[in-house]
Amino acid sequence: VQLENTRADTNTQFKISGEGVDGVNDLFKVTKAGQIMLMATLDRETKSSYKLKAHIFNTHTKQPLDDDIEFTVKVQDVNDHSPVFSETYTGAIRERSRKGAAVLTVRATDKDDSQSPNGNIAYKLLNGTQYFSINSNTGEIAVQDNNLDRETQSQYKLIVHASDLPGLPGGLSTTTIVTINIIDINDNMASFKKGTFRFNVKENEQPEFIVGMLPMEDQDEKENKKPRFTVQNFNDIFYVEPDDQKDGALKLTKSLDYETKSTYSFKVEVKDEGVANSPDNQRSMLTTAQVDIIVIDVDEPPVFSKAEYTFNVTEGPITNKVIGSVSARDPDRTNYKMKYSIRGLNCPLGIDENTGQLVLKKELDRETEAIHLCDVTAQEMSEIGLKGYVIVKINVLDINDNQPELTNTSNIYICDNDKNGTIIGTIGAADKDENPGPFRFILAKRSSNFSLHDNLNNTATIVLTHRDLSMDTLEENFLEIEITDGGAPVQKSISQLHIRVCKCRKGRQIDYCRAYAHTGVSISALIAILLCIVTILVIVILFVLRKRYQKQNLVTLGKPVGEIHEQLVTYDEEGGGEMDTNGYDVSILSSACHSSSLRPTPAPAVYAVAKKPPACKGDMAMMIEVKKDEADHDRDGIPYDTLHIYGYEGTESLAGSLSSLDSSSVASNLDYDFLSDWGPRFRTLAQLYGVDGSDSDSSY
Fold first, then answer.
1. Phi-psi region for residue 538, left (φ > 0), alpha (ψ -120 to 50) or beta?
2. Secondary structure element (H or E) that encloses residue 13, with its range
3. Could you tell me which residues come within 8 angstroms of residue 545 by beta carbon, excluding any fewer than 6 positions away?
4. Has residue 647 got a pLDDT over 50?
5. Nearest CA among 291, 326, 99, 328 for reference residue 214
6. What is the pLDDT of residues 396-455, one digit of tens each?
7. Average pLDDT for residues 483-504, to the nearest whole number?
8. Cβ contacts of residue 630 below 8 Å, gap of 6+?
9. Edge-to-edge strand order for the sheet containing 357-360?
10. What is the helix (H) or strand (E) element at residue 377, kind and residue range?
């Protein structure tokens, strides 16, 4: 580019400024003569134009010679970029779609100038052109063949070519792969894989049992398979329904009976709902199949004539014990005889084991239990003894056998401000029977203070007829009311109605009611008291008998009672030995030595007497003598300790037994001097039996 100015001469110079001229990395430079030089390669896709200013000035004075002029440098495009696809394309189209149906549109971009051939893009398919086409300008892919078949090919991968400079040499291009999935439709008819099926089935199989499978052939997707089966003949016994895989499942509508029919032969037809016209397999499809069934005989349990037996029986006294019968048979050709039995919780029936006749065993009461269920069993009289079962239901019919009862009695009361003619409450009646009919009310005993009015709607009102009493003088009132029902036979009852006396506010709103002391004891309370008395008497008698039995046992030991009592010593507690001074009051023991009242009185020498220590040898010795004397003269005490313990202990000890039960009845000549050799622990015992120890004062 050349800059020119009329004032330019040898003393002038041109300069430029603006975009791309920064004094460091200048894209443009100008010579002194005004020629603009390009210093670097330009990229139109980065910047397509630059705005610059031209300056002219004197080289000596440095003064501008003319005004600045702005100009623009435009960058011309060249084809230096290829088209680019920005995404991966996947589409879908239903099979058998019409020709020209759009599938999807692809789009490529080119950074070159879109206003020039460099940026124009053209599209074309490199394969699959017999099935699909593409618009070269828009990139829309459409169906070319209306006979697309998913069962033949379910997916197509097309190569799309995009290039610039359409129709000119030197263009740049790119490609991408487009995936097209074929969507299935129901265009194949369901067809049996073979024409004949044969199955064996036991006669005791239950309804819904699968006799066998009828495999189907259908190339459509499972969600597009819609077979519908029809059984020709015996459709009351067999039916076919599709399973999860859309194959035919042959099932039983009801159980088979070998003895009635042992073979079945029929045809099954299949149709496909919603199948397209002219199915793909219309020339090879098999829509009818022959099915043969062979029934296998099994030993079956007895079968009752009914699935459930129901009988209606009137409650009350039994007039006819026989209420009906049940019947079962052997379904097999053996035809065994039956034996019947019955069971059930509180079942009131009995059954004849040979005939199945049902009889009542007890009287029925509808109010206690309105329906009875019994299990009846029929068993073949054979070696295996197969059993069949049935439910017998008894509906208890009602009779009028219950007396009516008074109801709504809690709202009957007298207020202290009630006047004559005041309705003090309304009573009703109830009956346990089913249809008791209308109730009627009358007073069983006339009352001077009250009257009763039958409302003829199963209620009656109580009316105050006499009012000459104050709150302080009002007495407790009772009315006897007779109620009859409308049943047949008529039932009646007489009920006592207690009428309270209350202090009331306006509108008969109760403040409080007067309390009355109820005297008398109910029959149940009297029975409880008598039972308590009898129980106490029995306990006393048993205690006396036990005492007598214990005394008799003592006599049977072979020794006189007196001799046993001789050795009785009562131990209230255990002592701790010589150092135990807390278990007893020592002062009392010490005083025993000087108190003549504690000394034993002389007695006939009936029993053996051991050698005793001298008087006042020790307070403990005196105490033991007193206790022994008391025990010797106590003829009623039972020497448990002596008899049960001391009489049998020490048999293996060198010291022998501590009991005196086996002592001689004559004076003892035993020498107890050896006790002093046993050590300090036996010193006190040695002193008690007359052995002098080292401690002469024997104080405790």
1. alpha
2. strand 12-18
3. none
4. no
5. 291
6. 999 998 999 999 988 888 888 888 888 999 999 999 888 777 999 999 988 888 899 999
7. 89
8. none
9. 322-325, 357-360, 349-351
10. strand 371-380
- The predicted model scores a pTM of 0.45
Residue among 285, 268, 267, 220 nearest 246 (CA) = 220
Is there a contact between 427 and 441 (Cβ–Cβ < 8 Å)? yes
Q: Where are the alpha helices (DSSP H) in 346-442?
A: none
CA 54 to mean position of chain CA atoms? 95
Label residues 397-428 b or e (16+ Cβ within 10 Å = b). Answer: ebbbbbbbebeeeeebbbbbebeeebebbebb
Query: Quick check: 267 and 233 in contact, CB under 8 A?
Result: yes
In sequence order, what DSSP letters do the residues of 353-368 get, joined into one string? TTT-EEEE-S-B-TTT
- What's the angle, vertex CA 222, arms to CA 220 and CA 226, rounded to 5? 85
- Say which residues have a Cβ less than 8 Å from residue 421's Cβ, sequence separation at least 6: 463, 464, 465
CA 459/CA 452 separation, integer angstroms: 10
Nearest to 667 by CA among 621, 606, 616, 601: 606
Cis peptide preceding 489, ω within 30 of 0: yes
The β-bridge partners of 501 are 414
Rounded CA separation 311/398 (Å): 14
- Taking the C-alpha atoms of residue 533 and residue 189, their distance in angstroms, rounded to an integer, is 97
Q: What are phi and psi for residue 69, nearest 5 degrees?
A: -125, 130
Residue identified by tokens 């008529």 is: 490
